[in-house]
Amino acid sequence: MLELLQDPLKAIEAERSILANYYRKRDIVFTRGWHQYLWDARGDMYLDCNTGYGVAFLGHCNEKIVTAITEQARRLLTCAMTFYNDARAKFLSTFSKLLPPRFGKVVLQNSGTEAVEVALKAARKITRRRGFLAFTGSFHGRTLGALSVTGNTKYRRPFEPLLTDVKFGKFNVVNDLDKLVTEDLAAVIVEPIQGEGGVNPATPEFLRELRRLTQERGVLLIFDEVQCGFGRTGYTWCFQHYGVEPDIFTVGKPLAGGLPIGVTVFSKDIGDVFEPGEHGSTFGGNPLTMAAAAAACELFIEENIPERVREISGYLVRRLEETVTGSRYFLRLKGLGLMIGIELRQSAEPFVDKLLREHKVVALSAGGTTLRLLPPYMITRKDVDEWLIPALERVLEVRK
Ligand SMILES: Cc1ncc(COP(=O)(O)O)c(C=O)c1O
Questions:
Q1: Average pLDDT for residues 142-150, to the nearest whole number?
Q2: Which one of 12, 229, 287, 364 has the lowest number of neighbouring Cβ atoms within 10 Å?
Q3: What distance in angstroms lies between residue 123's CA and the mean position of ligand 1's atoms?
Q4: CB of 51 sitting under 6 A from ligand 1
Q5: Is 334 helix (H, G, I), strand (E, B) or coil?
């Protein structure tokens, strides 16, 4: 480990020699993180607006979460779901404080994809119907089920045939919905704000009409909040911004402060979906993740994270409007809260690369042409004014 730390090239070689080639890698070795910052093996500091695809929204190595993980690691790491566990109980009771009254039961998983799988399985079981409606530009995960409802054909094509009873509608096209929401559907699945697809918010009319039609036709409505949920948009759940509630929603990414988690949340009227044995997960609900997630939920409440997000994102968006809108590459600003997309007239990847190499800002792209920023909630006005905005002005060649 020390040897790898001293020589970043060795770490790169070690990964390259054995890790299958399923990610386009950037040759930086990150070894340490604290709140909104990362450090590489050479000791260079970075501003993190990527946060591991949106996971470190509560910051890297947040003290409260690290303490909870450390204490739990000394007591108990694993506990079969057939037994009760104090860390799990603590998470469930803290998490339930964040749920609107309509919601009751949850299923515990290890990733966003798995939470989506559970939602799809449950919808089939509850309705005894087979079909799903999903939308263009959507992303719901990479397992065969979640992939079947993911809109991007590039991700789906090599693995077809997938689930056969899936239709895709055009995202945000309200007029098509009456024909698409048919009575053979088990569920409609939609992200209130598409993340991977380009930081595209649903319009209120679109979600409202989906709610009306699904209710009328006995179809379940699933909101995938894996990326947009848990405070990131300035609301605890993104659907609260719209005033439209689903029957089922999924949570993941930041919920355990950096440890793997996925949760499927069901409305009370659905009740217990599965009989014992019909569904399970060896690691889902493990005490270590539960202790981290309980601490994350406590922190969420103590710090009033949605309000913090609204405050700093209001400032950040104002600064973006004053600056990057003057770039010849700029097309539009999209998103809500700290889920921000800067849509460009061309591929965003070269700009993500330049931000990283020349300005030590870690960002990501979405939907090809959108530069995506998913910073932690504690990003400061100083980070914005002295680091992020000057970096964006340089890479986007904003004329002053
Ligand atoms: C909306 C949405 N759903 C599901 C997933 C899959 O989550 P995971 O990668 O944790 O399996 C993602 C991941 O980016 C996502 O953005």
A1: 98
A2: 12
A3: 19
A4: no
A5: strand
